[in-house]
């Protein structure tokens, strides 16, 4: 275990992923040796504070919907790992044919992915009432992970285009699933803060994914980065299960029921 000094790298990463002053440093308390222990400690402190009506300086207003920030960060980091070099891979797999505009064909995988994302966000508005946020999110993450894996295994431009379409549809469903978690919050102030944290995590994840993906591509090759991205999607899939995010919303009502 590498100890990270307080207000050092751990503090910076805590600011990026969680916002506020949630330090990811591992010094000072035995229960913070593991990352998830630190997360659960924050959640436990907040739930206890809500149940007693006392808000400590440590727990602050760290509520369940704020877990969408690290979820968005992980998801969009994995999704963005391949964006920087996708046109390069597309050009390598594309076999030029007479009468075709090569620039348009090379850009097709990214264009199809974007179209799939937009189409999925439209369909999600109707599906969320049937599938709930869980169905949208978990199904979307699985589709996105499968699309990323198929992108790495693609040996032709046509297969790459199909794989990116699957990735786009999956990412659109997962995106709307994350938004649905926040929409369940009835308090407008908390809901607004939840969306702010969600988009902060998304923006940070996109930038992180672009940088790390480009570096990985130079070291391990273009197509292997897709396999790394699909592994990140597995982490995203199990993250809500590990922290039991559904139990956090609405936290206060559930605590009152257990105490009564």
Defining key terms:
single chain, 260 residues, globular
Question: Mind sketching the topology for me?
Answer:
Elements: H1 9-17, H2 35-52, H3 68-80, H4 86-93, H5 102-106, H6 108-153, H7 157-183, H8 188-220, H9 222-243, H10 251-259
Helix pairs in contact: 3-7, 3-8, 3-9, 6-7, 6-9, 7-8, 8-9
Give the overall shape, derived from the CA principal axes.
globular
Oligomer: single chain
Care to count the β-strands? 0
Straight-line N-to-C gap: 42 Å
Mean pLDDT: 76
Largest sheet: none
Total of DSSP H or I helical runs spanning 4+ residues: 10
Notes on the protein architecture:
By secondary structure, the chain is an all-alpha fold. Helices cover 73% and strands 0% of the residues. Helix 3 runs parallel beside helix 8 (188-220), helix 3 runs antiparallel to helix 9 and helix 7 runs antiparallel to helix 8 (188-220). It is globular.
Summarize the structure.
The protein is mostly helical and 260 residues long. 73% of the residues lie in helices and 0% in strands.
